[in-house]
Design a protein that fits this description.
Blueprint (H helix, E strand, L loop, with lengths): L2 E5 L7 H13 L3 E4 L14 H4 L11 H10 L2 E7 L7 H9 L10 E3 L2 E7 L5 E8 L4 H14 L3 E9 L11 H20 L3
Parallel strand pairs: 1-2, 1-3, 3-6, 6-7
Antiparallel strand pairs: 4-5
The structure holds flavin mononucleotide.
Length: about 200
């Protein structure tokens, strides 16, 4: 599989999903969508067992082990999210926090040359940010996602960050927005195609 896509909305088939689907349509790549709200993901307890005791592995026996495997198996990552109080919804935040063991596998370069923050096995992989809001603070949500992707040293190749006011995008109802998203997807698909570790 080429692309792992996270759909951060707890609501099925609404704005976030529709934006993500239009982008995926354009990629021409194989992809899988994970919905953190439908997954069994405990919150990060900050214990650092994944750093100090079992490097690269969390002690929690839940869906995050499978999700991290998929982060490594796929070439590209898309994070799509609604805005909840200027941030991502709780289930997606849990996903993000629980992705921290990827920094402690020992694979990849040290972060900014220093070992304290672990290594960056996902460095250089193409990533895309898709954020919607009812009308405000979508830029804050995007900044939070950007921070995470930059921490992991993904290569952010495109963003769609817009106040969508609840619109559900389809080719028929919003042809211009659908076309814009499809083009973003094409660009992302090319970046995934061109990526080599
Ligand atoms: C708990 C909660 C908090 C929200 N916070 C904001 C916000 O800060 N700014 C905003 O413009 N919209 C906010 N919204 C609206 C959603 O971002 C908007 O309805 C979005 O389309 C939801 O995505 P979905 O349709 O994919 O579920 C909030 C919605 C909820 C349920």
């Amino acid at each position: 599989m080429d692309i792992l896509a996270l759909c951060g909305s707890p609501r099925k088939n609404k704005t976030t999903h529709s934006v993500l689907q239009a982008v995926l349509d354009g990629t021409g790549c194989s992809s899988e969508i994970l919905r953190p709200a439908d997954m069994n993901i405990g919150h990060c307890t900050g214990c650092l067992v994944c750093k100090k005791k079992t490097p690269g592995k969390c002690w929690q026996d839940d869906d995050m082990a499978m999700a991290i495997d998929k982060m490594f198996e796929t070439k590209g990552l898309i994070i799509a999210s609604p805005t909840y109080f200027g941030n991502v919804p709780g289930p997606l935040k849990n996903f993000v926090d629980r992705s921290i063991p990827t920094s402690y596998t020992g694979k990849g370069d040290p972060w900014m040359g220093a070992e304290n923050h672990g290594t960056r096995p996902l460095k250089g992989r193409p990533a895309m940010i898709l954020v919607v809001s009812g009308g405000a603070d979508h830029e804050k949500t995007a900044a939070n996602i950007r921070l995470v992707l930059e921490y992991y040293e993904y290569s952010i190749v495109g963003e769609f960050v817009e106040p969508m006011g609840g619109a559900v995008i389809s080719r028929d109802e919003y042809p211009d927005i659908y076309a814009e998203l499809f083009e973003l997807g094409k660009m992302f698909g090319q970046a995934v195609h061109d990526y080599s570790p």
